[in-house]
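User: Teach me something about this protein's shape.
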Amino acid sequence: MTALADKISARATPTRFVATNGRTLAYREIGSGPPLILCLRFRGVLDSWDPAFLDHLARSFRVITFDYSGLGQSGGEASYRAEAMARDVIDLADALAVDTFALAGWSIGGLAAQAATCMVPDRVSHLVLIGTTPPGPVEHPSEPIFLETALKPVNDLADETILFFEPASAASRAAAEASHQRIAARRGDRSPEIPPETYLRLLKDRAATDTFPDPGGYRDFLARGTVPILVISGDHEIVFPAPNWFALSRAWKSLHLVVLPQMGHGPQHEVPELAAEWIASFIRHRAKPR
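Assistant: First, the predicted structure itself:
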């Protein structure tokens, strides 16, 4: 990255493309420092991240975002199965000659990030999970309003407030509008939204009793692993309720859990600077044991 590229905002950084294992992955990067790869949410594309969050992360990291295979501007076959999304992470890192990296995942991207960590644990220095779920069965399900809202063909600001913020809080509602405006500020070179027929098919393809099926033993692997794990969740997380992590707080020896009051499924968009600073501090101060 050049010194000029370091100063470019996420709203202006260009989309790049890399060919790897028979498909082309679209990605963007800003900042310099240790690599940090971010995995997207359900229906997310490159332009679903709040640029304020990315810009603040870029003060400490080389921040890499991407579109999953077959979605947004990436080619190939689309899938919301954890292993397929994890393969995108690993192939992208390989194509960019990134050997060791921190890895973060938001919502369904947290499934990808956990699977990738289990697949290449020696390459992941830190794992950050935002508004997501652990592998295997969980006690607390999603609230019905999530799918009722998330499956609409178009989500407006009111829907985004329900999905990612805390509608009962005036401060959270204001944060939702501010984040919405920041995301909309990018002009041109935007990834296309995922059409309903695609995301509905992908949901059907991955239908299972558990939100995050665990045939590979991911939960046990992460419980005994040495990769430092930071979970960030809102206290009113309608998709993947925070209490599902509470029982793991002592069972997973490297797990750190932060629950934010009066927030929902997208705390990093509500308090982008604070979330980015927590992530940077965590990665800076919690090293993987040698």
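Now, about its shape. The first helix runs from residue 3 to 7. The beta strands are 16-20, 23-30, 35-39, 62-66, 101-106, 124-130, 229-234, 255-260. If you'd like, I can walk through any region in more detail.
User: That's plenty for now, thanks!
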